[in-house]
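User: Sequence recovery, please. Input:
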């Protein structure tokens, strides 16, 4: 069986490690940027002239004019949690017949998404805004890569499981899962 798997890796150029390389780069980068933004917001860095903390304190918009303060309305933290849950649910809806391990991982990531809401409520708005933008970009990429037109434009080959109407199928699966009466 190992020999067959190794032959498939070579033939299709799809070693499992290649799928995880992005995570090993993206996760540390996310952590370092989050810590840096937190330090900037708390004035832990020193610079000459107009400090980064002062710039962040006046650089917000709408309901969060001060990026060094917490979001007292909880709009940003809840938005982070909702977008992360959407990403998890989109992934879960495309999987049919998940293994027990995959189900546990999905439940764990759902829990982390919900847990991110109170965590995001305890950090400066600049960090939460970064998390929100990062999550929104992940959701956008996930949806964009489902588009048959975009896949053709980028010459991404179709697979057997790809649909001609991915957004309609996703919406139908979402409605069936969450709004159907059993």
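Assistant: Recovered sequence (182 residues):
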């Amino acid at each position: 069986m190992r020999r067959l798997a190794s032959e498939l890796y070579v033939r299709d150029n799809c070693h499992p490690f290649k799928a995880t390389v992005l995570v090993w780069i993206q996760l540390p980068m996310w952590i370092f940027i989050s810590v840096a933004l937190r330090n900037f917001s708390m004035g832990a860095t020193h610079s000459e002239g107009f400090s980064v903390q002062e710039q962040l304190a006046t650089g917000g918009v709408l309901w969060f004019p001060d990026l060094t303060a917490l979001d007292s309305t909880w709009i940003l933290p809840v938005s982070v949690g909702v977008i992360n849950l959407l990403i998890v649910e989109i992934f879960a809806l495309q999987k049919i017949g998940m293994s027990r391990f995959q189900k546990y991982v999905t439940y764990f990531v759902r829990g982390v998404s919900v847990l991110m809401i109170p965590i995001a409520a305890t950090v400066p708005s600049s960090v939460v805004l970064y998390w929100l933008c990062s999550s929104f970009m992940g959701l956008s990429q996930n949806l964009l890569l489902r588009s048959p037109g975009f896949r053709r434009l980028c010459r991404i080959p179709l697979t057997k499981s790809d649909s001609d109407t991915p957004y309609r199928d996703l919406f139908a699966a979402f409605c069936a899962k969450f709004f159907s009466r059993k």
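The two ends are 41 Å apart (CA to CA).
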